[in-house]
Amino acid sequence: MNEDGQTSTIRDKILTIDVRPGWRQGTRITFEKEGDQGPNVIPADITFVVREKPHLRFKRADDNLSYVATIPLGKALVGCTVEVRTLDGRLLNVPINDIVQ
Predict the structure, then answer these.
(1) pTM value > 0.85
(2) Whether the Cβ atoms of residue 93 and residue 81 lie closer than 8 Å to each other
(3) N or C: which end of the chain has fewer CB within 10 A?
(4) Cα(16)–Cα(39) distance, rounded to whole angstroms?
């Protein structure tokens, strides 16, 4: 709606969502009164719903991420180190000293 309150022009607006760690599938983000506007029309709310995408290395279980590594039997029995690349690109060396299942 233009300043005169009678006419309108089409304008694009970019809405930015900063996704926070821990948000689960189904989390709703609402931008109040950012929808279509017109004469004698109250702007609607715009709601986005978070949907998770599968990840190549990690699986989500509630607030935890699981990583499955295949370890040869010989290494599993005597101990070894498993390299795990994190979401932010770091490389962690996880020592395996106990029997794992």
Answers:
(1) no
(2) yes
(3) C
(4) 26
